[in-house]
Each structure stands twice: as C-alpha cells, then as structure tokens.
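Lecture notes, structural biology module. Today: joint structure prediction for complexes of five components.
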Amino acid sequence: MITLTHYLVLSGILFSLGIVGVLRRKNLLMLFFSTEILLNAVNIGFTAVSKYYGDLSGQIFSFFIIAIAASEVAVGLGLLVLWYKRSGTVDLDSLQMMKG
Amino acid sequence: MEHILSLIVFFPLIAGIFGFVINKENVKTFGISVAFVEFLLSIVLWIAYDPTNSGYQFVEYSALIPQFGVGFYLGVDGISLFLVILSTFMTLVSLVALNIKKDIKNLVITILFLEMTLVGVFLSLDMILFYIFWELSLIPMLYIIGAWGSGQRIYAAIKFFLYTFAGSALMLVGILYLGYQYYLATGTWSFAIPDWYLLVLPFNTQLWLFGAFFLAFAVKVPMFPFHTWLPYAHGQAPTVGSILLAAVMLKMGTYAFIRFSLPLFPDASVYFLYPVAIIATIMVIYAAMVAYAQKDIKQVIAYSSISHMGIIILGIFAMNAEGITGSIFLMLSHGIVSGALFMLVGVIYDRRHTKLMSEFGGLATVMPRYAAIFGVLMMAAVGLPLTVGFVGEFLSLLGFYRVSWEITVIAGSGIILGAVYMLTLYRKSFFGKVVKEENKTLKDLDKREFAALIPLVALVVILGVYPKPILTTIDMSVRKTIQTMERKALLPDTKKFLLKVNSIGGTK
Amino acid sequence: MEKYLFVALFAPLVGSLFSLLFTAKEKNTITAIVTSALLLLSFVSSLTLLVSIHDGLTLHVKMMDWISAGNLNLPFGFIVDNVSVIMMVTVTLVSTVVNVYSMGYMGHDKGYNRFFTYISAFVFSMLILVMSDNFVGLFIGWEGVGLCSYLLIGFWYEKESASWAGNEAFIMNRVADLGMLMGLFLIYWQFGTFEYDKVFAHVGSLNPAIVTSIGLLLFIGAMGKSAQFPFHTWLADAMEGPTPVSALIHAATMVTAGVYLVIRASALFSLIPEVGHIIATLGAFVAVFAASMALVNRDLKRIIAYSTLSQLGYMFVAAGLGAYWIALFHLMTHAFFKSLLFLGAGNIMHAMDDELDIKKMGGLFGIMPYTATLMAVASVALCGVYPFAGFFSKDMILAAAFNGGNFYIWFALFIGAGMTAFYSFRLIMLVFFGDKVHKKLGFHPHETYPFVLWALLPLGILSTVAGFFEKPFEEFVTEILSKYEITIPHATELGLIFLTSAFVILVIVATIYKYNKGGFSKQLENMPIYLLLKNQYYIPKIYEEVIFKPYYRLSTFAWKQIDVKIIDFIVDLIAKTLYILGQKSRKMQSGNLSDMLRWMVVGIVALLALAIFYRPGM
Amino acid sequence: MLNPISIKIATLNLATLTPMAILAFGALAIICIDLFTKRLDKSFFVMFTLLFIFLDFTALIGLNGPSRGFFGVMLVDGMSMLAQGIILISSALFIITALSNKPFKEFKKAEYYALFLFMIVGFQFMVATDNLILIFIGLETASLALYTLIALHNRNKAFEAAIKYFTMGALAAGFFAMASLILYALTGSIELGVISKVLVSRGFAPGAFTLAGVVFMLMALGFKLSIVPTHTWTPDVYEGSSAPLAGYMSVVPKIAGLVVAIRFFDIFLSSQIQWVQDILIFLAVLTMTLANITALVQEDVKRMLAFSSIAHAGFVLTAIMVGGTQANSAIFLYWILFMFTNIGAFTMLWIARHKKNLWGSRYQHPFTKFSGMVKVAPMMATLFAIFMFTLAGMPPFSVFWGKLYLISSVINSGHVVLAVIMVINSAIAIYYYMKLIVYMFLKDPITEDGNIYIANSSTPIKTIVGITLFFTVAASIFVQPILSVVTELIKSSGY
Amino acid sequence: MFEAIAFYTFSILVIGMFGIVVFSKNALYSMSALAGGMIFISGFFFLLDAEFLGVVQIVVYTGAIMAVYGFGMMFFDTTRDIKENIKFKKIIYTLALLSAIFTIFILMAPVYSVRVEALYPAIKDVGNIQMVGLLLFTKYLVPFELAAIMLLVAMIAGIVLVKVKMEETPTNIEVAKGGK
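The predicted structure, tokenised, for the full assembly:
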C-alpha cells in the first residue's frame, strides 16, 4: 500500500537531490536545472497530499508552481545570455567582482 | 515669560541657521551677539525665577506623542537654573576667546548648535527629550574636536563619540523600562520626570535601573575607569572645544545623577553608595596622580577635571543638602575654572603651538599678566578659600563626611594632590628662568583675551566671596529632591540613612 | 567701634589692591608708602580696639552671609576679644615695621610693587585668621596666609630653589590642612555650626572620644602651619624668600597661627588633657630637635628659622599644658625679638650681597654697629636673659612644664634653652666678631639706611621691655582664657628660674669665649653627630626618597601603565576586537554565489536540526 | 456533475482588486503607448508612472478594511493597507529619481516602467492576501521584475548582482514551495487563517513536521528580509544596482516580506510556541550583530548601507518575535520612518554619482570619495550627515522614534536582555555611519571640485531629498499622527 | 499493487534521472535526463488522478522549458563536457546528506492520520480537468490572472534583457575576470 508518506519521502529525496545540485553545480545553466528539480519535488508532494486529502488546492498549487518555474526560466536564461555575452562564460566563479 | 524656556533652548539653533547666510567675516561677531543675547535671556530667567519656590518654574508642556507619553516638557528649578546660566555664559566667553580662522562659519554655527543641546539637557523635564538633547550634544562636539583639533583629532573625536554614545545605550533601555513600569502602575504612558518621581519601584528593579543609568552618566562624567576618552578629547580638541567640554558637558553626567538616579532610585542609590564613593575616591586620587605625571599642560588640566568630578560625585552621594548643594556649586565653579584654564592653555598654544611644560619656563617674566591670571585660576582650582573653588569642594566633602569619614579623608587628600600637580605645573611653566629663545618674545595677553578672561576671574572671586544667593536657590530645590528620596524610600535602612545624613549631632 | 574693626581689617586689603595696580609697572615708591600708611592705620585701629577691649568691650560683628546650604549657615563673622586683639596688635605692628623696613631692603628689586601687594595681602589674611568668629573663617585666613607665604617664598621665582620651596611650603601645609578640614567637618556634624561661641558652649556635653578626635585633627592643622615635626622641613626651605618675609611670616606671625588655633580653641583643648599632653610632648621634642639642627648650620637665616621652630615648640608646650596665656605671651614676645633678629639678618645680607654663609662673614661689628646691637639685643631676648622679653615668657613656660609634673618636658626645654644660647651667640660671634673673612672674599659690606634702622627701633625696644608687661597681659587675656595656676612653691619656681638663667648665661659666656679663641676644630665636622645635624637628621632626604620620588614614579606608573596600557588598552581592545571580528565575518561575504547558496542551505540544515533536537516546552 | 455556478459581482468585492488593477492597466498602457510612439522622453514615463501610482494610492485610501474579496483570496485589512501605502509612497519617491541629470539607458526604456509597475502589483498582491498561492505568485512576479530592473542598470556589476539575486531567489522559491507543501500536508489548506486554526486545534503536532514548515518558511521569507544566513546577496546586489533602486530594495521587498512574516508567525506566537520565539530571537540577534560587525569594515558607502539595512531588518525581526499590537505597530512605524531616511540616503548617493573615478578603487562610492566633502559641498555633506545620524538612530531624527517604540515593545514583552543587545548593537552601528561623517567633515578634501558630488542632481531629485529630509528631521511632529494611524489599522486587522 | 509497482518504478526512474542531472558532467546528458525526469514525474500525476497536471507537466516542461534550455545550451555552447571547479566537496556532501536525512526524517512522520476536512473536495463523477478549471476560474481567478501578469513580466524581462546593448568598455570585463 502506497501511503502519503511514501510520496512525501520521495518528494523529500528529490528535494534533497535538487539541493545537492544547487550546492555543487558551478555551471549556472545546470544550477538552474537543479532549481527545477526542487520545484518538481514539491509538485509531487502537493499532488499526493491533494489526492489523499481529496482536496484540489494542492493540484492548483502545483499548477502555479509550474507556471512560476516557467517564468523563472525565461528571466534566468535572459540574465545568463546577458552575462554570457559580456563575459563569454556561464561559470559561476566568474561572478566575483563584488565581495567583502 | 510664558515661553522663555523654549526661547532659551531654540534661540541659538535658529540663530545658528540664520548664521549660514552671514558673511564669513562677520560671523564671529554674529555668534558673540547671539551668545550674548542668549546669556541675557538666561539672566532674565534668573531674575524672574522665584527663589522661594523649590518646584519647577516656567513649565511648558506640549504633547509630542501623547499615545506614548512623550512630550515637549521644559521646566527649570534651582538645580538646573545655574547650569543653564553656566552654559550660556561659557558659550559666550568661549566665543569671545575664539580666534580660529579656519572655517569659522561652521565653527560658530556648531557652537551655537551645541549651546542649544546643552541648555536643552538641563531644561528637559521629559526623559525622552532629555535623551534627545543628551545624544545630540555629541554631534557638535564630534565636529569641533574632529575638524579643528590637532594631532590625532579624528581618533580622539571618534573615541569621544563612540564611548559616550555606547555608554548611554543602556540608559535608553532603562528609560523605556521605567516608562513601562509607569505604564503598568498607572495605565498611561509618561516619560515626564515629575510623574516618575511619584513612582515607587521595587528594590530589585531599582538596582538594575540604577546600573543602567549609572553607566551612561559614569561615562559622561567621566568616572574611573570609563575616563580614558577625556584626555584624548581634551588633548586634541581646540580651545573652544575643551572649554565647553570641560565646563559644561561633563556636568551633564553629574546633573543627571542628581536629577534622576537619586530621586528615582533612592534605595538603590543608598545601596550602591559605597561602591560609587570608592570609585569617586579612586577618581580623585588616581586622576590627580596621573595629572602629576603629565607633560602636557592641557592634559594636566584634563585629568584635574576628572579629579574634581570625583569630588562632585562624592558630594552628590552624600545625599544631604550640604553635599548636593555643594556639588552643584562645584559644578559651576569647576565649569568656570576649568573653562578659564583651558582658555589660558589655548592662549599659550596659539603663541607657541605647543603645550608641553618642558617648552616653557619663566613665563611669569615674559607674560606677567598671563601668569597672574593663571595663578588666580590655579588657586581657584586647588580650592583656596574666597575663590569659587573652595565653596563647592568644602561643602561636598563636608556633606560626605557625614556618610563616611574614612572615605572623606582619603578623597580629601585630593586637595593635597591637586596642589601638587597644579603647583608643579605652574612652577615648571611660569617660574624659573626663560631658557628658550622663542619664549623671550612672547606677547602678553591681548585685548580679546582679556575680555574673555576678566569676567571669569571676576566670577571666580565674586562667587568665592558671596556665593549665597546661588547657594540658597540651589538649596531649596535640593531639599525638595531629598524629600522626594525620603518619601520614596522603601527600605527602612534607606530611610534611616537619609535621616542620619540630613541631621546634625548624634554619636558616631 | 565696629568701624575700627573694619578699618583694621580692610586697610591692608585696600593697600594690597592699590599696589596690585602697579605690579606690572616699574618700581614705584608710592606703593610702599601707601601700604605702610595703611598698615600703620590698621595698627592704630588695632591699638584703639585694644584700649576699648581693655575697657571691657567685646566686638562681635556679622558682616554678611557667606555660605548657606542645608543646615549650614555660615556668615563672615568677626570677633575682637582679648585674645584676637593681642594678635591683631602684634601682627599689624610687626607688619608695619617690616613694610617700612622693606622699602629699603627691597629697594632695588624689580618686583618692588608686587612685594608690597603680597605683604599687605598677607596681613589681611592674617587678620581674618585671628579675627574670625568661626572655624571656617579661621580656615580662610589660614589658607590665605598659606597662599601669601607661597607667593612670598617663591618671590624670586626665577630661582629654582625658591619656587621649589614655595611649593613645598604650600603642599606641606595642605597636608596638615586636610587634617584641620576633617576637624572642621567633625565639628560641624556635631554642633551644626562653626562658631566658636556655640561650639565651645556645647563641647562639654559631647562624647570625649569625639572631642579628642576634634582636638587631634585641629592640632594636625596647627602642626602644619607651625611647622612642627614632621611638617617642619618647609620652614627652613622657606628662607628662600626675601628676608622681611621671613621676619614677618616665618617668624612673627603666620607660623604662630597654629599656636593661636590651640589657644583659640582652648575651651576644647582644656577638656582633653591627654591631647594637650601630646601637644606638649611634641612641642618639647621640636624645641630640642630644631635647636640641635641650628647648632651646626652655617646658613644665617636657617639658623634663625630653626630657632623659630624651637621657639614654636616652646609655645606648644605651654599651650599643651593648658597655660594658654603663657603661650600667647611667648608668642607675642617671640614675634618682637624674632622679627628683629630676622630683619637684622636682612641688613647683614643686604650688606653682604645676599651671602648667607656665616663662616664667610666675621668682624662686621665695626661696619654695622647699629645692626649688631639690635641683633645682640634680640639674641639675648631669645636666650631669655633678664630683663629681656624672652626671659619672662620662656621661664614661665619652663615653670609650667615643671608645674605639671612633666619633668622630662622641663628637662628638654632646659636643654633647649642652652642650645638656644649656644647657636645664638655662635651666630653673633661668627658674624660680628672674629676674622673679617668677607674681606678676602671681596665683599664690601656697609650699614643700611637710617630709616630702616629707625624702623627697627620699636622692635628693639619691645624686645627689651615687653617682659615687664607680663602681669597686665595676664590679667587682660585671662579674662577669656583660663587662668593657669602655678602650684609649685614659689621658692622652687625661683630656683628653677635661677638655674635656667645661670645655665643660659654660662653657655653664652662659654660660647663667646670659645669663638673668641677661634671656634671649634674642623675635625668635629666629621663626627657622625655633626653630619646628622648638618643634614637635618636626613629628614629632607628621607622625604625626597620615600615620598616625593616614589610618588612621581607611582604617578608615572599610573599614567603609563595603568591608564594607557591597561584601561585605555581594554577600551581600544573592545573596539579592535569588533573590528577584527568584522574582518573575519567579511570572509563570509566571499562574493562567490556557491558560497552564498551554501550558507542558505546551512541555515536550513541547522534550523532543521534544531527543529528535531531542540524542543523547549513542546 | 457540476452544477452551474452563478456568482454575483457584488459578492466579489471588486474594490479590493482595484489598486492592483489600476497599476496593471498602467503598465500595459505604457507598453502600448511605447508601441505606437517611439522616442518618448523619460520625463513622460516617470510622470505617467507617477500618475498611476497616485491613482492606485487614492484607490487604496478609498478601501475600508478589513474585508475580503474574490472568494476570500483577497484580504484587505489594515496591515495590508499600511504596507501598500508604504510600497506606493516609496515607489513614488523612487521613480522620481529617474529624472536625474545624467542620462541612464534604462530610464529610456518603456519596459523599465512597465516592469516597475508590475513589480508593485506583485508586492501589493503579496501583502493583500493570506493565501499562500497568491503570496507566492505575487512574490515571484515582483522578484522577477526586480531582477530585471537590476540588470537593466547595464553595468557588469549590475548583471552580476541580478544573477546572484536571481539564483538565490530561485532556491528561496524552492524553500517557499517546500514550506507550503509541509503546511498543506499538515493542515490540508493553503490559507494562513485555516492553517492557523487547524494547527492550533491539533496542538501543533507533530512537532518536527510543523517546525520544519516554519524553518522553510523562515528561510524563504528570510531571504527577502535578508536575515542571516540568507543575507549574503544584499551587499552585492545593492552595490550592483543603481543607488535609488538599492534604496528601494531595502524598503519595499522587505515590508512585503515583513507583512507575510507577521501574518505567518502570528500563528505560532499567539500560541506561545517557545521554539519559534527562541529561533527568531537567535536569528534577529545574529542578523543585527553580524551585519553591524561586517559593516564596520566596509570601504564602500553603498555596501555599508546594505549591511546597515540588514541590521535594521534584524532589529525589526525582534518585533515580529514579540507580536501584539504595539510590536506590530512598531514595525510599521519603524519602517515608515526608515523608508524616508533610507531612500533619502540612497538618493544622496545617486546625486553623488559620477563617472570619473578619482579614488582608484573598485567601488563606486568608497568612503574616500567623500573626504572633506563639507569643504566643497557643505550643504550636501550636512544633509548626508543628517541621514547617517538618522539611520544610526540618533535622536530626535525619525528612525530614533521607531527604534524607541520598537525597543519599548521588546521590553514590554519582558525581553530586557534582548533590548540590551539591541541597544549595544545600535552603539556598534553608529561607528560605521559615523565613518562617513568623519570622512566628510573631518578629513581633507580630495578634490576642489564640488560638482562631482552633485553631478547627477536635478530639481526633481532635490525635491525628493527635500521631502525625505523633511520627514526625517521633523519626525518628532509626525510620529504621533503616524503612530495613531498605524496603531488603529493594526488593531483593526486583529494583530 | 499496481500502484506500488508504478510508484517504485517511477520513483527509481525519477531519482535516477535527477541523479544524472545533478551529477553528470555533460550538460546535454544533464538536460536530457531532466527532460526525462519531468516526463516520469507526470507519471506520478496520472497515478495520483491529476490528469490535468500530468498534461501540463509534459507540455510546459518538456515542451516549453526544456526547449528554452536547449536553446540556451546551444547559445552557451555547453554541449561538451564541462569542467567545474568544485571546492569543499566534503562540506557540500555533508550538508546535502544532512538536509536529506532531516527532510526525510521529518516527512516520514505520519500526518494524514488525522483526517483533515477538505476545503475543496473533488466531486465525484466530475473530471479532474473540469474541477481544476472550475477552481481556477472561481476561487483562484486572481492568482491565475496574476500568474498571467507574471508570465508577461517574464516575457518582457526576457526580451528586454536579451536586447540590452553592451555599454561598458572591455577593461571592465578584464576587471571582472581578474576578480576570480
């Protein structure tokens, strides 16, 4: 019997995977991939809760999260393009002008 | 006379703002005129003041934040009256003595601004208002020391500012806590001091609050071991800064002790009496010793201020009318005397650009008038009778004798050590032969310097011979403060103590 | 009569203020004339008052309020009674003489005007001291004379030693003043007032322990002003000042203020005989101690100064033993002959271009006979030879000592008298007789101005005849001071007088004989006792090593080590620590995005850990 | 089968939506106008924007809360109105600074203004609801627009700032989503009101699960509020963006975040959950202390101000911890006063913006740049000094009153030690504010030319400075009216 | 039973895919794995009776988002293996491990044991899509509209950002690189 906990744990595992990606990626593009994983992990959780509670709000939330993910991609890539044009790299370590 | 206090507080500010427009050449004259008018106003206040009334007079109140109990609340009583006059007077004198050319306009405006804050501190009857002026007074002094000082001026200015600001941080918590206590007791917010006088606090609360206020006042006074900002500030400050710092600003701390610590926390004050008295005694002796070791004339006077402030603290914590009245008078006299001494150091610094004793010697031959005035003020500083310095010192020590003769004896050695460093200073710089070539051609005091110094010397003598009108006025209000303490005292020990120190006779 | 009081009191002040106007100007004889005239006026007024007092009047004036705070109400009050009027007369008389004398003595000094300012100011202070009706008023005068003394000792401020001596005098007096101040405080808190009348009226009902404390504290003040051991060193050093000053302040008037205080507070001291005993013992000790130092000293003025010290010791013996009127009497006679002695010495110095070493003089009698005569008279009076003034007063003191049964005190005084005789005549012999050493050294001494000598004449006369006023004096002052009954048999008393006189005269004769023969051999000078005496028992050195230098070192330590290296260091350390922490925390802000993200995750992880493991009240 | 649904317009309470609708319309209008007429001057855009902000403001004032609209999604209560008011006023102040003397590319673009208006819409939604979905979308709308606005400043640093901000924002968005998931899993609702009820009814069990929700929410909101350890973006982003935008960022996103935080933490604080209180105290202390200490060593005024605004946020966090009417009123009082001052201060930097780099460092506004400014530009220096002292909480200037009321509320809740830590922090803080003053007033000038300090000034900007200065200096008079309004509104919202 | 098999299968697949996304050195693999993972996630949605979401997931993610990423990859020329200078690996993995443990530990707590009354219960016999549609256009109308604005913002932002012309001189870029 697959319970809600199964889904939530899966969601947690995926979220952690996303965090690993966010932590170790130096390539900004691939770092953005990881943030997508974070949001998707949450989506699974929402839908599962929605199902088990018989409440639709979770699905709606997931829906909006997808929309948000899409918007973020647009802006994020826009910024990356800008930076790439300027510096020729999307390596995160190139963003070191400001510190201290 | 309705709004004379507001006028006295804000006149310098408004005049200072006008000052921005005035031509650079005339700004000093403007400043002197303003300070003079301000001084006249304070004299008018004195004349109009009813010395038989011990309460607050010319009270003005307008609510600022009624919801939070903060109001623009001014009033004057015998304790503050003369400190206000001292502030206006010393500002006037220091402006007369001013001979800085650099950025004179900014300087004059800053001094006027400072005057406002000083007067405001003494006239505020609302704790928040008091705190405002208390903190505001740091800004002009920071600028004066930092911009017109010498040597490590910026270090000194920052040190002064940070130290005193940090010191009063806890006071803010104390104020707010007290406000809350008042709120709990009465259901309304108020930061008005007369209201607070009605508030009886539990002993433990008193202890904590006393501590919070103490730190702020101790730094300002400055009490040992919070005094190290003072030598730097004085050492680097221009003459005008030193005068106002020593003459008026240091008094803010001791004034606050009388105004707040004693009547608000009578039990705690008595409880902490001995620690405070011991600190004060250390101040007196330690500062006198350090002063003796100094090589710089100005530093000697700076440390001597600490020493004198120690006696003032003792007088305050005598908690009897003699001691407190004496300490207030000593505040006035120390204001006049230290101000004048700093001015005198300024005179010689202007001529030689050094303040080291070793650079001088034999000045009495070259500058006899200067030497004479210095001598008079030195004698006032060491507390010679019939000078202004004696009355306060005598009364303060007299008052504290009732509390503890042992401590009084030890602190009283300050009058010996004071003579030691002062006379040594005088001997090294004024006596002996003129050795240095550049000293042989020094000019004696000029008219401007005379104009600034003569009033001070005159006051030193007049107030030394006839201090009574001032003393009685102060005494009235001091007695009232003591009555407040007696009324509010919780512990039987406190009551017994207050009764004892305020009565004559009885065996030891 | 009040106007006489005010005239007597304020005439010197007026004089002082008048000459103050001229201080910065060239020498102007008018200052000297005006001040002298005013001092004379003061003297005349004092005399008038004396007469009135004698007729039974007592003046008690409250001029104006001074300090009032709490329970304290302190007016400027003056009292002229039998005791104070004696002091007034003495002070104004001696000061008038000294002032006139100084016109000659200071004639060539560039501080001429300044000098007269100080002298008059001193007289004013001294008059306040003696006329005040309360302890604080006395303290005003007390400090005032201290100030003038400081100024006058350091009159030649260009001399390093003079300014040093001035400081020493002032500071040492301050030490003692502290004691006195404490005494005043104690009085106030017991009586609520400082007025003599009220204090003395109630002193009897007080706890004896407190009275003892008051007495001791006041006496500490008296010790300082009267230069009693251990405060005595300043007096010898004070001889750096101009000689008229030494005569007026450090012989006749100011130094006797301590004695005056004890006399004034006799009502108090008479209640505490044990303190009186201490005073007497100390006085006796100083009488011998100071005299012994005078034995070997070669400095003209220091010898006289030690003599003054010794005589002050005599006075304290009398005062301590309750013979207040005798003390006062000796005070007065001493004022006459000691100032005469000093002024004579001043003449010599004037003649010898300020040379002070008596071994460099000799044979001056031929050159300045009048001075010599006056000094001889003064010396004889000092030694207490009949019929000179000193005889009467000094013998009374010896009798009083014997009377109280304090034979060791008597013996000490007896020895002291002998020593006095020796050093006085050693001085006379070395200065006025014997070889004219000064000629070899190239001095050209000469007699001083006649008017100066005339001015000295009154003192000379008084030194001679004052003793005969003993009885009227006793009657006069014991109207308010307690009587002192000599209880020993009259024969014993006479015997003692004879014994003392004989001893003194013997010593005088022996001294004259010895010095006529050429004095003592040089070898004596290597004896330890000689060195001890010559170095003033090493006391100045001890003070220097044990107090002055360590104090300076301690001060420097307090400044350099405690203030700068500890307290300020801690203050700066707090600031620096914050700053260094800032630099450390700045590393958190590495600017690297990865690090930033990691910090966020660190936050999450840490808080989650807390959520799991930290559960207060859940 | 679904039944047909009929909804009466009146029940929707359209009014709750009007303020946002006005702005959204304005934004679209700008884009459309730009389509048709090219080469419009920036003054047109600015005034057009301002006009819509004004309309929005009037619409806002017309509302009377507390009321809900659109099926309970919209929540117009006193707090949201206050927050919207703050957002709109600072937006108005900000947009005027676009009228600078020097030309800047971004201000020529119509999109800039459109995005700006959309951003405001986002923030307004964020504060005007208790629905987590709407909060999230509002947040993202505003954030995405803000990232773009930063990047449009068109400097390398601006891009760097935008990317850093964006990336961290994405992670924070993940946290927010996770928090919502946990809360949803716990309560089956995504509305704070319902969540609160359910949680309370169950006694917040299971503990760790609930607290995990708090943790994720705290970090997500903490990112907006720049709470340690999510604060690291702040200095870099402020440095990279234009000065007025940095000032804007230090006020507006934070007040939006604060409102959400107040709403969210109220659930736990009114039930006296010790853990939440402790954590908030801990984070608040950590935030202000770390920020203050780091600010001490900054070499650039803008970065210093960034750390200062972190510290201010830490300050305000304490009031969130306290909860209750006084504390919440204190937050808003503080923030209103802080808004004027901080925008004023950043505008001063904007005025001093100058291309020439006389001071040879990587910074745009290093402290050395302002050396001896009082000699060459005394007025500017004085104003700057007033702003600095105000930020330091020097009485009687505006922020002092906020600080006073805030610390008072902390004390009243019995956290005296926390109050002491707060004042000690403000004592540390004064050092770095004073550093600038020391440079301006006490050091010798580096240049004779005072123009470099006012190169970018123009009448509108001066007006802005004048307004902010007025509210800063004369605060003593305004505190009472502001406070009474704030208290009334907060009370009416039930906090 | 079917549910369990499907759940575990999809779980392994998704975790595997996302593992590749996170750990792969090749951006192309990474992206492809991401796309795959997204599709598998939609499987969960279908499993959970959220058909609408499943469709949206596939359409939006794989159809739109991945396309944009693909475009980005081409632009950035990151199809080859990329070198990443990863420092402090230990810290990273400790953090990751801890966060995983904590998150999972917390999420394992049984929450649904207490039944919660559904606010918006799914109505029987009404399709998922219908229900979602109903909610979106009533209750969630405002968020929906705001989401529209958000997408508009994203669009404008994307366009404006890509349009930006470079202003600063190359020296500044040097500075930027020098900052490493």
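Point to remember: The first strand of chain C starts at residue 59 and ends at 69.
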